[in-house]
Write a structure and sequence with these properties.
This protein is an alpha+beta fold and about 600 residues long. It folds into 4 domains: about 180 residues, Immunoglobulin-like; about 100 residues, Neutral Protease, domain 2; about 170 residues, Neutral Protease Domain 2 (Neutral Protease, domain 2); about 90 residues, Roll (Pdz3 Domain), CATH 2.30.42. It is about 30% helix and about 25% strand. The strands form 7 sheets. Strands 5-4-8-2-1-11-14-13 form an 8-stranded mixed sheet. Strands 22, 23, 24, 25, 28 and 29 form a 6-stranded antiparallel sheet that branches. β9 and β10 form a beta hairpin. α3 runs parallel beside α4, α4 packs across α6 and α11 packs across α12. The longest helix is centred in the middle third of the chain and has 19 residues.
Amino acid sequence: MKYIISYSNPHHHYIDIEFIAENNNQEELLVQLPAWRPGRYELGNFAKNIQKWAAYDENGNALKFHKVTKDCWKVYAKGVSIVHIKYNYYAAEINAGSTFLDGTQLYMNPVNCCIYIPQRISEPCELILQLPEDYKVACSLSSESFSSSGEALYTNKKYFLAKDFHELADSPFIASNSLQHNQFVCSGVEFNLWFQGECKPDWVKLLNDFIRFTNEQLLIVKGFPGKEYHFLFQILPYKMYHGVEHTNSTVIALGPGYNLMKGKLYEDLLGVSSHELFHVWNIKTIRPVEMLPYDYSRENYSRLGYVCEGVTTYYGDYILFRSFVFNAQQYWAALEERIQKHIDNFGRYNLSVADSSFDTWLDGYVPGIPNRKTSIYDEGCLLTFVTDIFIRKYSNNKHSLDDVVCFLYEEFALKGKGYSDKDYKGIVEHFANYPYDNIYNNYINTAAGYEPLLKEALSYIGCGLELTSSAKFYEHSLGIKVSETNGICKVAAIYPDSVADIAGIAINDEIIAVNNILIKSDNSGTNFTEWCEYYSHKTIVLTIAVSDIVKQVELLPKPHNYYKVAHIKKLKLSTEEQKNNFKQWSKNNLKK
């Protein structure tokens, strides 16, 4: 299968794609466009971006075709030996998993826009890019520009090979004349950093930190599936945080570019880079049995999202900590953020993380209805932390979750096998030498709060979990959280059975006034917080608008009754055993 990529008016955002299927012997040919992309477990319906679609024989004669499904076509090929399909793809969205074209770059995730013949999915694929002469291409695919005799294969074109459609779909690229590049080598593997967009990379700082966490990951698994790896950064002028994993690369979209090397955004850069690199093993090669191989035409349901994403989320930050890239304060802040999301999410009592893994295909990437589900990222991360400590505790620190990851890689990934939830449970029990039933049955597969588990796990390493009242009066005394956008204050969340809930306040209600004083916008949002504090010692009367109807609601505050804030604290009187456990777990990272 061959793909020729070109374009004429980049500001129109349309990419022209010619698909050539040689050696055809079919009277009727089914051609499929992926309905989703691995790394995002929801349907993408990419066919909505196709404007024109036509099929021809090798002499340019039109072949009849019709759609079988929203993203599958039947071509009446009449047994012609070479089938040409020409179509275009609208590429105007830019994130870590999209395809984008403008006058500055061609950025493509082939899984978005490359059709394939399902029964020929294992055949080699050729990718030919017709690009401006000064464009460089950041891509993990093998590239050839000349034949063995030194003769140019293509003029003003870039030529790439993929062993099959799976590799092509898994190989995004950025083509541009403004790419910034550097590289380093760890354990014989070449790692490339590519930056597209306005930014000023501090290469010394970047390479120092990337080498540290990359080395630590390679020490854990002791094997890498490829000879090179590419970090592809799309740096945008506005706020953005998104990453997508691939076997030999990752695309990471971050912004704004002027803050890239500063403070929180630089921490985010390190965190998402570490996370996506760990995915090389966990989900790209170590894969649930339901996703080996991928079926791009439909949902690939699995209850193991808490392993695919939760384990990776845990290791993403944890590796930064134990490789001395993050200090303890930075790491605890990241873990506290996960715990905070958990205790603020009352969906933890309604849908387990395993059930939420299955339902990711339904509404996993949007808030959804209130208090329905948990997160394979947040709750998955917390249960992974607990599981790591569980193995360490019952093996007397002889084993850890590192051993589980290694075992899955060596005994499943390298042998081309997918694992089941029972496999995962059994491997954890093998290294812990203790039943995993409590965590597996009562937390992974049952809707529950994790606070008891977290306190026990933190205690093992000499730390404690404190839940203190929110500093915001309306959160701890009224039981509401608000969002403040463009000077408008709306109810964002409600604590079940709080005074606000009992009074009939609902999510998305607009708060207009506090005790008859209008809410006004200020530099940080609105002055709702200040007026609530001002009237905190008396009855609060909120004026709210619901579907253009204004009403007043009277609330009698109950101080420090509702929303709590999570804090991880080091125990003042920790034992020598706890101190040793901490050293074992943190790899002796005692940086303050």
